[in-house]
Amino acid sequence: MSEHVLVGIEDAVMTIRLNRPDKKNALTRAMYATLAAALRDGDVDPAVRCRVVLGAPGAFSSGNDLADFLAVATGGEGGTEVFDFLRALAEAQKPIVSGVDGIAVGVGTTMHLHCDLTFATPESVFRTPFVDLGLVPEAGSSLLAPALMGRQRAFALLALGDGFSAEQAREAGMIHRVVAAEVLEAQVQAAARALAAKPPEALKIARDLMLGPRDALLARIDEESRHFRARLTSDEARAAFMAFMNRKQTG
Ligand code: COA
């Protein structure tokens, strides 16, 4: 279990908080493992009816830890934690409400495509520089984003690497509401508590109907993951990770 993910349960709501603010909540393998376990535990725990995912003020998450990526790019073993987390997210059986303030990069953006309600502050920016890093979209985003916002906007997000403001994300259907930073967590928790108070069987059926069969999504996550793993050891990716790691010395 990672000390950088805090998990608590109150009033039938499991709150999962990314807690690595000094690294802008970059996600390590241990953090993915903790996130996956929390989601799976919540799915089977009758005391949990809804989940909340939060980051830190100013940094929801800077995405995958680039030091972990560089380790794989230079011959290390990558592990399966991230892919396990993505499956747990796509297979989630109970609602997830997320709250974003500030930076949301890579999986810090794509994970919200699996959330049922996302609130974000006006200071939030959603960005997925996968192609710039020599990588490909993940978390089923290559399937979910075009369906949600149309191919052109999805291309701007996932291939061009455009940053989407909170308002642009709302217009694209990626998030539910834009709210002030002072009320973000209160509004997220209020929505989660409202969901937790609903008749759980009816809520589950309603959610499942809206999600539809998940086979195609899970197959896409697997397909993306195969490409992603291969790309991690490409020259393009290695150069991009090295450039990030060396940027302070050179910049
Ligand atoms: N992986 C590892 N470390 C990261 C990180 C990441 N994804 N994102 C930020 N950090 C670390 C920085 O190296 C820095 O560490 P240091 O203080 O030990 O030098 C610390 O977090 C703060 O980041 P910094 O870059 O100084 O903050 P910033 O506000 O200027 O910029 C970002 C924040 C997120 C815009 C910038 O850090 C960034 O672009 N990160 C990479 C994002 C990314 O490409 N993620 C992968 C997506 S697939």
Give short descriptive properties of this protein.
single chain, 251 residues, alpha/beta, 2-enoyl-CoA Hydratase, Chain A, domain 1, 6-stranded mixed beta sheet, 4-stranded mixed beta sheet, binds coenzyme A
Can you describe what's shown?
The protein has 251 residues and is of the alpha/beta class. It has a single domain, classed as 2-enoyl-CoA Hydratase, Chain A, domain 1. 48% of the residues lie in helices and 16% in strands. The chain has twelve helices and ten strands. The protein has helices spanning 29-44, 66-73, 81-90, 107-110, 141-149, 151-160, 166-171, 184-196, 200-211, 215-232, 235-245, 247-250; strands spanning 5-10, 13-18, 50-54, 59-61, 96-100, 103-105, 117-120, 125-127, 164-165, 177-178. The strands form two sheets. A six-stranded mixed beta sheet has the order 1-2-3-5-7-10, with helices on both faces. Strands 4-6-8-9 form a four-stranded mixed beta sheet. Strand 2, helix 1 and strand 3 (50-54) form a beta-alpha-beta unit. Helix 1 (29-44) runs parallel beside helix 3, helix 5 crosses helix 6 and helix 5 (141-149) crosses helix 10 (215-232). The longest helix is centred in the last third of the chain and has 18 residues, at 215-232. It is globular, with a radius of gyration of 17 Å. Bound molecules: coenzyme A.
